[in-house]
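pasting Pyrroloquinoline-quinone synthase for the record, 250 residues
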Amino acid sequence: MNPAASAQEFEHRLRQIGADRYHDKHPFHDRLHGGHCTPDEVRAWVINRYYYQHSIPIKDAAFMSRVEDPDLRRIWRSRIEDHDGTDTNEGGIKRWLRLAQAVGLDPDYVQSRQGIMPATKFAVDAYVRFVRDKTLLEAVAASLTELFAPAIHENRIKGLLQHYEFADDSSLSYFQNRLKEAPKDVAFGLQWVLDHADTAEKQDMAAAALEFKTDVLWAQLDALWNGYVEGRIPPGCWQPGDGLLLAKAS
Ligand SMILES: O=C(O)c1cc(C(=O)O)c2c(n1)C(=O)C(=O)c1cc(C(=O)O)[nH]c1-2
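structre below
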């Protein structure tokens, strides 16, 4: 049996997966953050990415349903509250719908999840299923893409503010809030994975889970690019002009 790598070496391995494979390297993000997306490309991104937002708390509830340690459940449940909201926090889903409105979409349309691309659904549903079915170690490791999310959120805030009229403190509050919320989740998740991946085999499983998650994110942007940049919109998916706020008002 191979010996486990040290915690430091293993953390380095996990971070290298992000450096090599995280979706900040996808050309769609360059296009979005560089101000080169058309309004409809931005709308297609907001609509499809909503499916991820919708599914994250479902994924975290699936995770919690399998946790027998009350301390771990107590720590994990703030992830659900961050998205669903509480009495004092409107939550990430509402903030995302504010972004949808700012780009001219009817939030009811976005929330209906009509017009989501098949690849988005398959990728995101695969993540929820992965967390439901795999070991807790793999489930926590898969969430560690969030190690790399603050940098992309910062770039996004900067790029959108610079290039798009819809961007302001209100429409971008989702990302501003994630900058405050994600570090606590990821510090806990990383330490948990480092503590629990105590054999070479478990380290390999955790690394593979993180790679799987980078695939989940990458596949969504490939689909978006194919559909809305290249113009090959799959049957039944959002068509420019659908679900606009303006159409509702008239
Ligand atoms: O905008 C992004 O690039 C991005 C990426 C990720 C991620 O790496 O999975 C998350 C988020 N945002 C995010 O906002 C979020 O709440 C979130 C939760 C999770 C997760 O796996 O539990 N990932 C992410």
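The pocket of pyrroloquinoline quinone is lined by residues 56, 143, 145-146, 149, 152-153, 178, 217 (CB under 6 Å).
The chain has one domain: 14-249.
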